[in-house]
Amino acid sequence: MDYEFGYWYVLLALFVLPGFYYLYRFYTKTKKSNSLKFSNLQLVKDSISSQSQLRKHLPFIMLLVAVSLIIIGLADPRIPLENVQEGVNVVLVLDGSGSMAATDYLPTRLESAKAAAEILVNNLEPNDHAGIILFESGATTVSYLTPFKQKTIDDLQAIKQRDGATAIGDGLVLGIDMADSIPNKKKVVILLSDGDHNAGVVTPNEAIQYALQKKIQIHTIGMGSEEPVLLGTNIYGNPLYAELNEEELTAIASSANGNYYKSVDNNSLNEIFENISDEIDRELEQVSIKDWFLIASAVILAANIYIVYGKYRIVI
C-alpha cells in the first residue's frame, strides 16, 4: 500500500523530538543531584525503589508520543482507497433493434435486458453515476448521467421496442461521450447487443479508437440463445433470424480493456449483471487520515493529564 503526505516537510519537525529527550534527561539528572544534596540519602533510595522507572517516566513518554502524532497528522498522511470521494461513470449502451423482440428470453430479449440492467444500477456505489444509451439504426440518449439511481431505473423501464437495424458504433460513440461528460476518474461503457453491426455512420473499430483516446473501458455482453431464433419473414417471404455475433463483441471488449460476457437465457443474463459491477476497475484515490492521528494524540494527552493530576497521579 502506497502512503503519501500532503505536507511531507512538516515531518522534519520530528527531528526536534530527540532534543526534547536530551533536555528531559538533563532535567531528571539535575533533579536527582539536588535530591542527593538536600535530602537524606536513604530516603531518596527508598523513594527510587518504590517507584518503577517506567511509571516515573510514563508522562514524558506519552507526551512525546502525542507530539509525534500531532506532527504526523499536520503532515496530512494519505492512504489509497477505491473511489471513496469520486465514483465511476457507468453508461449502459443497450441494443433496441428489431431482433431484441425475440422471445427466447421471457417475455422478450429487450424486456429481459431492462430487468437485468436494473440489477446493475442498484448494485452501483452511491457516488457512481449511471446513464443509458439506446441504439438501433441510430443512437439516442435515454437517461443522462446521474447519481440518482431511481431516475435511471425509471428511464430504463420506459424504453419501448424499436424495429430498426443495429448501429453498434453509433451507440458506443454516444455512450463514450456521455461517460466522458462528468470528470470522474474512471469511466466505463457496458454494451449489450445480440446482433451484427449493420447500420449507422460510425464503425465499431472507430468507436474503439475513440474509447482508447478517452481512456474509457468497454465491457460487452452478448445476448442470444445457442440456436438462431426466427423473427419472421421479409417482404419476399424469406425467414429472418436473430443470431449472436460473439466474435465482434469479443473483439470490442478485448480492444477496449474490458471483458466479454455471454448470456443464453434470463438467468445467465441476471447473473452477469449481478457480478459485472465487481469487474469495474476502480482507481485508487489518496484519502487523508490525518484526523486519526490528531484524535489519537488528543486521547493520549487526556490520559497523560489524568495520570499527572488525577487520583493515581505520578509525581514528576
What is the number of strand segments?
11
Which fold name is given in CATH as the topology of the largest domain? Rossmann fold
Query: Outline, from the CA principal axes?
Result: elongated
- The appropriate CATH architecture of the largest domain is 3-Layer(aba) Sandwich
User: CATH H-level name of the largest domain... which superfamily?
Assistant: von Willebrand factor, type A domain
The radius of gyration computed from the alpha-carbon positions, rounded to a whole number of angstroms, is 33 Å
- Please give the share of residues in helix: 40-55%
Strand content: 15-25%
Low-confidence stretches: none
**For the residues shown, what is the average pLDDT?**
85
Which H/E pattern describes the elements? EHHHEEHEEHHEHEEEHEHEH
How many helices? The count is 10
Distance between the termini: 42 Å
- Give the number of domains: 2
| Biggest sheet overview | 6 strands, mixed
The level 1 CATH classification of the largest domain is Alpha Beta
Q: Your description of this structure?
A:
The strands form 3 sheets. The chain has a 6-stranded mixed β-sheet, sandwiched between helices. The radius of gyration is 33 Å and the shape is elongated. α3 (53-74) runs antiparallel to α10 (290-309), α4 (109-123) packs antiparallel against α5 (149-157) and α6 runs parallel beside α7. The model has no long low-confidence stretch (mean pLDDT 85). The protein contains 10 helices and 11 strands. It is of the alpha/beta class. The protein folds into 2 domains: 4-80 and 287-309, no CATH class; 88-282, von Willebrand factor, type A domain (Rossmann fold), CATH 3.40.50.410.
